[in-house]
Specification:
globular; binds S-adenosyl-L-homocysteine; 2 domains; about 375 residues; 7-stranded mixed sheet; 10 helices; OB fold (Dihydrolipoamide Acetyltransferase, E2P); about 25% strand; Rossmann fold; about 30% helix; alpha/beta; 16 strands
Length: about 375
Amino acid sequence: MSDVKIYKSCPYVKKCGACHIGDRTYEEELAQKKQQVETYIKKYCPVTDMVGMYYPYHYRNKVHAVFGRIKDEVVAGAYEEGTHRIIPIKNCLIEDAQASKIIETVTDLIKSFKIWIYNEDTCRGLMRHILIRKGMSTKQIMVVIVTAGSRFPHKNNFVAKLRSLHPEITTIVQNINDQDTTMVLGEKNKVLYGTGYIEDVLCGLRFRISPSSFYQINSAQAQVLYKKAIQAAALTGTETVIDAYCGIGTIGMAMAAKAKRVFGIELNSDAVRDARANAKRNNIANIRFVAGDATEYMTQMSENGEHADVVVLDPPRSGSTEAFVKAAASIAPKRIIYISCNPETLGRDLEWFQKAGYRAVRAEGVDMFAFTNHVETVVLIQRKGT
Ligand code: SAH
């Protein structure tokens, strides 16, 4: 449990809107987050206290900034909430501090190399965003520079200078996003230095992470979360496990040693490529990854007369779907472990699980996002009558 008695202040908090530092103490926040989960979940099962972070600052291992101009200055920062006005941000209190420094350096280099900043209104210019990902355990750092076109003026000198100023960077990628979109990353990556991905160690396993693959942004708390999911799964070594919405395979791989076999299902093909490489890297032979829709996969299993003992699902904020719940029920798992980052959609989905013959047993909260309103919960769901 955290004992955070120092309350830091941030000059951008009211405008940036990414966090709510200063509004309440961390202890109050944890209590409020538990209440938030209870609002949606209490009628299904008991809710435990939130497991807080030991040090709730600088925890984000993925840091993003948009480039812009204020008068003649090149700046990097965030859009003011609800607008397209950029607020330059330095030393964000929840982002990794090393990443913030690298963003400052890249901004200075863009200025000194006189490279054009992309203008969202005119759709002209080149430099759009910067994304940094850091392996908190390996200390590997990836810098992704998002450009509107495939050109990169002074590329070699730019990369050499950036590396000399930050020898801690292990890979640099140019991502090309030529669409008029609010998405940060485009589809094409050019590796400018290193391997094009970073690695991190989580639950004793080594994972490769590509620019667009989903990876929990708080590595320390992700391990707490996964341990709770593994405990809830109560594996004995004989089970077939489905890891639905599996990303780069972290949860399924962390369970594989205690299961007979695991199938990870994921839509994003880059993440699936990472997941397969990750299984190899960790010598895990009893896991298979499938690129596709989790609902379709389980429906197909059921049509083939197959079943699973445990289904783990970790969907995006929009939650799951009724079709998914029906497909999961059709392969008759005894236990379902629902990892949710949105208590509201979780509540809606638990109603569907109840209708499909399942009951929630307990909900455990793990705080992954201090000073924000995001709430993560693990729920153990069991087939009625088991
Ligand atoms: N369990 C992983 C990733 C969770 S994020 C982890 O903890 O790291 C949710 C993932 O679901 C994303 O990688 C997204 O690409 C994937 N996804 C979204 N809709 C999906 C669907 N219908 N079928 C399979 N995967 C899906």
